[in-house]
Design brief:
A four-stranded mixed β-sheet has the order 1-4-2-3, with helices on both faces. The radius of gyration is 11 Å and the shape is globular. It has helices spanning 4-14, 21-29, 59-65, and strands at residues 16-19, 35-38, 51-54, 74-79. By secondary structure, it is α+β, with helices and mostly antiparallel strands. The longest helix has 11 residues, at 4-14. The N and C termini lie close together (12 Å).
């Protein structure tokens, strides 16, 4: 079982991720996003060919998990780095 908190922190610090729907949309259009993680209180958008995961916490909780001092509605994983985050889906 993957520790989601640890996997998010590792992906953010050692991988390549984008935060926010505008950035995710831009990178998804180029085919770079492998996984989108949505906060439980954020609306899901459909990006064809991109896997999604619903984070159990709020956007404030997801922001904390990313190590950010602000709410994060969604994160897009471009490169997971050494994390096991892609095994969530």
């Amino acid at each position: 079982m993957v520790d989601i908190q640890k996997a998010i922190k590792t992906a953010v610090s050692k991988g390549d991720v984008v935060l926010g729907m505008k950035e995710i949309k831009k990178h998804a259009a180029k085919g770079k996003i492998k996984l989108v993680i949505y906060a439980s209180n954020s609306p899901e958008k459909d990006f064809p060919g991109v896997k999604t995961y619903r984070y159990k916490g709020s956007n404030a909780d997801l922001g904390v998990a990313c190590g950010k001092p602000f709410p994060v509605a969604a994160i897009g994983i471009i490169d997971p780095g050494p994390s096991e985050i892609l095994s969530l889906v």
